[in-house]
Structure formats: structure tokens, C-alpha cells
Amino acid sequence: MDIPSGDTAPSNDLTQAHWPAAEDLRAVLARWAGWLAHERRLAAHTLDGYQRDLKGFLDFLGAYRGGPPDLATIADLDKVDFRAWLAQRRRDGAAATSIARSVSAVRSLFRWLEREDLVDNAAGRALKPPRLPRGVPRPLTPGQAQDALACAEDPATTAEGQDWIALRDAALLTLLYGGGLRIGEAVGLAGRDWRAGATVIRVLGKGGKQRLVPVLPAVARALDRYRAACPWPTTGEEPLFRGLRGGRLHARLVQKRMAEIRAELGLAASATPHALRHSFATHLLAAGGDLRTIQELLGHAALSTTQRYTDVDIARILAVHEAAHPRARRAGQ
């Protein structure tokens, strides 16, 4: 997929999606889509995923039941029907992560239907995703992170070759590494969320939950330098991070910029913008930070999510031990 040349995200208006369903169900799905976008305030890429996953589910029901599903069809589904859908997804070669996302989308719909007193289907509300292998985050080393930030600030390494673009990229990536933000949280910031001299920045995280993230002096300097150079307003309700034409910067452009930095520095494919968030957490833990504090800084709902970073730190400790201990070295000789 090509990187969009504009500054804004692609349209994710689920209310206009051509759902393969009967008219009564399409009307309900439009309401659910509006709730996802405006009440739950899901990120654009999540809305995109929900649209694809639910369309696939409706396509399956159409073939399985012999016609476009309606509200009565949805209400009548039982565990056997859902098992048939999941079995079909596996036969189609869908990965466990894709199936888990599809289950999340469908379960969200059924739980919303129950809250709205439209359909009460216990089997749909109780859908469980497949067990996923526990992934270990792949952070950059402190040296690699610093090199990436320095490279971002060099206008010669940008496609646009403009100083303010380089300062913007450096400020955003410094914020990801220095504050542990998700890329969607960073590009979603408004000018009012950061003021010069402040020691915290207000972040709107998943599920519309707000949190205050401490701002390191290096992050503050990077933000102030970018703001001073940006030719577009970055205050009030205006986006903090602006695109080339003045619109809100799109996450895909940040990912593209990080890919350029990877190529410039010879970093692994895992060196993505999200890896800077992983690096933030891993480096804090290695320096003695406690898990509860890191959980709050990252905006994790569950401590178990944050505990993944202990696996990274243990792996690092074992590698150091293996390389440094005399008996370990002797055994390898």
C-alpha cells in the first residue's frame, strides 16, 4: 500500500460501509459504528480493522445461512454457529492474531447490542479469542535510540529536505522514546496538550482514558524547537504535529520516516516507532523503575501487559552473564 501524500488519515466512516446484510441490520450497524468512532473513540486503524473483520463475519453468515443476515439471524446464532465461523477462518489460513482481532470486533458488536436492548445473544457476548503466544517486545539499545533521534533531526535524511520537517520528526520520535507514547497518541495531540515550560503532557490513550506523562528536558527542548520552526499554528485545538500541507500528521508518515532512519543506520526491521515505546519501558526497568510506575506511564490497563518487559530485562541479564562470567566463557571455548 502506498503511503498517502496528504496529511490526514484515510476515511474510516463505518456508517457508510456497504455491509453485506439486510436493511434492518445495516441500520443497527451504522449506529454501532458511530458509537465506536465517537463514544469509544477508537483509532483510525482499529476502526479499519473492525470494518474488515465484521464484513468477513457477515460474508460468512450469508454463505452459511443462505442469504444476507438480518437482526433475527444475529439473535439466533449459537455456539455451533460461532465455532463454524472460527473453523472457516482457520481453514482460510488466518493467523491467530487475525482471528483474535475478528473475535474482538464481533464480541464488541454483541455486547453493544445487549446494552442497547436490541439483541441478547449470550454466545456472541461470550466469544473468546484463541490463545496467543506471548510476544517479547524488541526494544532498541540506548545507543540505537539516540542514533535514531539524531538521524531524524538531519534534514538531509528526509524526503522533503526541510528543517522544520526534520525538527518535527525529531520532536515526535523523542516524545515516543522519552515519554513512552503510542504513535496514535502522539499524532493525536492538540496544541493545548503541551505548553512551553510544562513538566507534563496530557495524553488521550486507549478507550478515551487521559493520563499525564512527565516531560523530560530533552523532550521539552525538542518540542519547543519544532514549534518555533513550524510554519503552521500549533496551539489551542490545532494539531500539535502538522503535516507538510498543515493538516494533522498521519501515523503512516511517521512509520515511513522511521523506515528511512532504519535504512540509514542499518537497524533491524523491528526498529519501528512502537519500538521506541518498548525502549522507553525496557530502559526504565533496567535502570530500576518499578512495574507499577511504568504501567501508569504507558497507560496499560493490566499489569500483566507491562510484565512482558521483565522478560526482556531477564534476557539481557542472561546475555551479559553468559558473555562476562569466567566459567561461561571457559565452557564456550
Written account of the structure:
The protein is mainly alpha-helical and 333 residues long. It has two domains: 112 residues, Tyrosine recombinase, N-terminal domain (DNA polymerase, domain 1), CATH 1.10.150; 145 residues, Intergrase catalytic core (hpI Integrase, Chain A), CATH 1.10.443. It is built from 16 helices and two strands. Strands 1-2 form a two-stranded antiparallel ribbon. β1 and β2 form a beta hairpin. α2 packs across α5, α7 runs antiparallel to α8 and α7 crosses α11. The chain is elongated. It starts with 22 loop residues before the first helix and ends with a helix. It comes from Marinibaculum pumilum. Belongs to the 'phage' integrase family. XerC subfamily. Keywords: Cell cycle, Cell division, Chromosome partition, Cytoplasm, DNA integration, DNA recombination, DNA-binding.
